[in-house]
Every structure is written in structure tokens, then in C-alpha cells.
User: Fold these one by one.
Assistant:
Number 1:
Amino acid sequence: MNDTEFHQIVDAQLQQIEEAIDNSGADIDCEISGNVMTLEFDDRSQIIINRQEPMHEIWLASKTGGYHFKLIDKEWICSKSGVEFHAMVKRECENQCQEEIDWQ
């Protein structure tokens, strides 16, 4: 995968996250600036998602730690836990909201 393909794939992932949050009705503010997506919660805590172009990875930082995701068989998988990216974002959002979020 070249850098252009990497950015297109990550852009699509971030758009899916933003749409899932919007459609869920959860009270999470979402902002994308450059290569960084910031999810902000009522208590002003944040989840930061950014792309790491040199390694072709997505990184996520939250209250519970930092996670790196590599594209494996068309899915972004956490190198620490093996959890898929969207599942991890949902889990971390629920942790920070302290409530279940219904998103597809």
C-alpha cells in the first residue's frame, strides 16, 4: 500500500466513526483537524485518533492507554490486543461516556 492509498483508507475509517457517532445520538463532539480526529466528552476528556503515515498505522489514545492498529486482511487490528479498530473505538467511547452506545 502506498501513502495515497493509506490516506484514502484511513479517511474512510474516520468518516465511518464520525457517522456512527452522529447516528448513535451519543453526546460526543467529533472534530477532524489534519491527520487527527478528536472525540470530546461531557467531562472534557478526549480520545485522540491519528494516522501514522510512516508506519501506515492508526493510533488511538484514551484514558485506558495508547493503541496501534495495522491493516491486516482488510481490517485494522490492534497490535496489543487483537481487537478490531471500530470495536475498540466503541468500547473506549462507552468507557468515557460511562454508558452503552448503540452504533452500527
Number 2:
Amino acid sequence: MASPINRTISVAPMLDWTDKHCRYFLRQISQHTLLYTEMVTTGAIIFGKGDYLAYNDAEHPVALQLGGSDPTDMARCAVKAQEYGYDEVNINVGCPSDRVQNGRFGACLMAEPETVAQCIKAMQAEVDIPVTVKSRIGIDDMDEYRDLTNFIDVVADAGCEIFTVHARKAWLKGLSPKQNRDVPPLMYDRVYQLKQEFADLHISINGGVKTLDDTANHLQHLDGVMIGREVYSNPYILAEVDQRFYQGTTSTATRPAKTRVEIVQAMLPYIEQQIELGARPWHVARHMLGLFQGQPGGRIWRRYLSQNGTKRDAGIELLTDALDTLLEAQAQATKFQSEMLP
């Protein structure tokens, strides 16, 4: 199914990280990067008491990542995603945690391409938004290139045209989820080869992308790049994405990026709104710790938020005081440097 979404650059779904507050914050930095929710299970959506699909309209384009393996439940949740206005629903076939395996979804489904294919068919029969898949290059001893192509073949035959491939295999036994993000070696060439063999499919790569130069190199071989942990630790990496990768696709891509200070100021009304709804400032501010990464005063910003963010009486001044402290430190550093000049 063709999609109008420009998915050249995306931010990976990251459990406990890419919640609605994080996504709203990242949208202040890039207008066009495709954002993904944390993985939400079918059980949570169907039986949970909370509203697991809530998001802010400003987050678009935004995709729901769904965890599950029952075609009927997956279709039911896809319908809900479309009703909520999500731009895409993505099937998680990459998470290696024990909890996910016990629920029979995530990376273990790479051993069950027919199950994933059945989910694709059931979901696409009910919704018009794209139904996509995020996978690994293999699992355990099913890690040969032919295993990967067999999985892609079966799922693509069911109608899926859009894949994001984490360029590491996953060990379902013996490695923790954290280790599975680092220990298995990255095999970018295997994903490049996949694109050559399945030229008609839209294939993005994920894993180990740390710079926009890395991103540009991957785009010489592939259709898209999904960036994960680097965005979370250094979110301002997205500031150049619109002009660098979306130039010419939309008039808004020519706008200069907001400065870090402008981003903080843009977040203040949102935080005030969330406080009125019962959230604490730290629920939002924790995603902003890395905003001044690598900048003068960056450690001061991070330390101020960390030390004061969880206090019970913290209010909107958490951000304004942190910013004032940062700017004062930068001013003092500039003054010191000028005084040291001959």
C-alpha cells in the first residue's frame, strides 16, 4: 500500500522513552521526521483501563507501534489507531525481551513469518493507513541471509510494502534487551543487499546511527533511516534534518531550525497544560535532559533538571530556572574568556 508519508527520517520506538511528551518535544525540533510511539500491546489497547493511544495533534506525522500476534486483535487495534488519526501502524517484530516473547510477539515472530503475514492481511482489510513492519536481520540460529529474505518474501506477499530493519540479529536466549542493542554486530551490508533484491519495497535501516552524515551515507543505499538512542541522548541532532533531507519536498523545510532556547520556550505552554491535566513537570522535562548536549553549560542544565525535577513542589519554574542557570553560566564563561584575551 502506497503512503503519502515521507518516511526518509524517523525516530525509533523506544520503550519508556518515546511517550507523548517526548514526541511533542521532538516535534519542536523537526517538523517532518516521522515519530513512533512506544510499543503498545493489543492487550493494553483492548483491555487496559488507560488511554494508551492518546497523543497531541502537533505530533503528526506519528505512527503507532503495535505488539501482538493474533490477527483479529491486531486488526481491531489497527482500526482504533486509524480512528484516533494515526498516520501508520507498525508491527513490532524486533523486540527481544522475555516479557515480549512470553506474549508471542516481538523478535520471536521472525520465526513465524506466516503469522505476521496473517496479521498484515487482517489489518489491511480493515484500515486505509499503512501497515508496516519493524524487524531484525535474524534471531538465534535463524540468522542467515536466506532466513531474512524468506521472512520478507512471505510478509511482502501478504501486502506489506514498508519495512524497517534493525541491522543486528537478536539473541532471544542469553542476552538482555540492552545487550541485544550492542553485542550482536551491525551488518549494514545485509540490509543494503535486501534493498537490491527487493527494489520495489520501501526499506529503512535502524541501528547504530549517530550522525546525520551516517544518515546520508545510508540513504545512498536505502529509502529511509531510523535513528534511536542518539536522538534521545542528543535530541538537537534533529535540528538540521528538515533542511538537509526534506528540502524541496515542502515549503516548511526551508525554515531555519529553532534554537535550543527557543525550543525550551516553546515547551513552556505545553508543560503548563500538562500540569493542569495532572502531570508533573518532570514527566516532560526528563526527555529534555540532552537538549544542550555538547554545549557550554550543558552539564549544568542536565544537573539542574535532574536534581530539582522530581521534587514534589516542582512547577513550570523548573524549566525557566534551569534555563536562567544555564544562560548565566554561559555568560560567565564568555566573560572569563574575553578577560583572558591579550
Number 3:
Amino acid sequence: MQFAVLAIVLAAAIMVEEATSLFICNLHTNNLAKCRPAATGNNPPPPGRNCCAVIKAANLQCLCPSKPFVSRYGFDPSKARPLLDKCGINTPPSCF
């Protein structure tokens, strides 16, 4: 049931303009912009302090079902695990 609710929320997020911030899994989607440089491209720079603060505040386990949708916010899903490592998240959920 929780997955179905999350799927509905994510579907709604896709239909909402990017300027509108949604609060999902303890993070505002507009705050993801702070991490975009560190999670895109072939050789991304290390994440900044603000990016890591966003990542550390997020409920990562809650985000697992939405990982395929992170590209909607300009992220390469394959860069999620290295980003977490660089922010000092030593025990991320297995989905990352």
C-alpha cells in the first residue's frame, strides 16, 4: 500500500512544473539542484557541503522505489551510490 501511494505521488511530481517543490522522503525536490553537478556527466565534481546536507536529511530507504525517477531531476541514477559515498553515507540502503 505504501508503495502505491509513493507511486501516485511520484506520478504527480512528474506532471508538476519543476519550479514547484515537492516534499518527498524528507527532502524538497528543488533542493536536489544542489547535488545536480555532482551527479551528472562523465567526471562529476565532488558534492558540496549543501548537497551533502540535503542527502543526509533525506530518508534514503523511502527513496528506493523512486530511484528510477531521479533522472527527471537531472540526475544519472548510476551516480547515486558514489554521491552517497562522497557525502559520508557509510550504510546506504541496498537499492543504492
Number 4:
Amino acid sequence: MNGDATKGILGTAFLYTNKDTVSIGVGTLLSGLIKHKIRPYELLEYVKNHSMVRPYIQGGEPVEYLAHLIPEGGYRSMPKIVGNGVLVVGDAAQLVNAIHREGSNLAMTSGRLAAETILLAREVGDFSENTLDHYRVKLMESFVGQDLKKYKDATHHFDKFPQYFETYIPMMNRAFSQMLTVDGSSKWEKQKKILRDMGSFGEKVKIAWDLFRAWKVMT
């Protein structure tokens, strides 16, 4: 869930249906919470009380609650991950793909590659940085390094230009709502209204330019 779920702050919310429970969560930048003076639990309660979410949890009882910080610095925040006798993996290495909300799979892959490198170093009896650098090379060649590099500027871009989450996503939500609501209006009438709601010609050009920039940082 994007946009209203985080009150326009860069981030997402989710609802997972399990066998016996429902998991609901919301994540956003710490800087966004501070800027808008919102506490994490307030944002979660806001999502839980949304008309789309509330029916799933009515009559239910909380089973577990947790909150934690996730290092979403990504590619540009990665520290030195190899040294003499040292390998850095998972969260400590900033291995989080914030755009796709992934971290566990990156951490597990880094752990596997680190273990393989340690076995190699043990075999040759050399735990120097030069030998252990095999881990860094393999990590950056894997999907972990490729994905982090692909989205290296995405989080910064969306944080720098808040209109994506504050304006454009709510605009898209309204447009889809209009198109998918059966109210006797033709699709042509609905499309004309959506175009009018996008503003003047200059505002439409700005939207198009922003969408192009978003596409650039995501591809």
C-alpha cells in the first residue's frame, strides 16, 4: 500500500494473510517520521483503521507487536565489507533493497557467499584481505550487488521529491477509483475528468517530467 498508508511519507504498508493470523505493517523513513512528527505506532493504527484494512481484523486480538530500524542506505552506504580476517554480511553491510522491501534474501545470500569464501580461505590457509576479497567480488556479481546498484539513487530521489507520494500516488488512486466504479458514466467521460483533475497543461508537463525521472532511477 502506497501513498495514504504512510500519510504521503516515502514508504509502504502491507497486509499478509497467514493461515491463522493476519500480519499488518508499515515502514517509512525515520527522517520522514521526525519531519512530520508522527510516532511509528500512530502510523500503524492509522493503517489498521483504514476502511480497506479494518474488516480483516474486526473481532481479532493482537498476537504480537514489534518495531525495528532497517538500514536502507543501500549501495551508496555500503561500508568496506572485507578486511584481514573480517567479512561483513547482511544488515551490517547495508544489504537492503528498499524499493522492493527486501532484506532477508540478500542477507542469506551474503551469508552463503561469506561461508564459501571462508572455506576457500581455510583451504589455502590464508585469511588476508586479498583472499577474502573473493566474497566481495562474488557478492557484487550476484543479484544482491546488481539490484543494489540498479536502485542506488531511487530512495534518495523519491525522498528529495515528495510529490510522488504526497500528490501522484493519491492522484492515481482517485483515477483508478473513477475508472473502476460503475456509476453510469462512460469511460470517455471518466478519462476526461481524470485529465482535468491533473491540472493545467504546464502541470501535466511537470507530471510527465517527474514520471520520466522516476523511470530513469528505477531502470
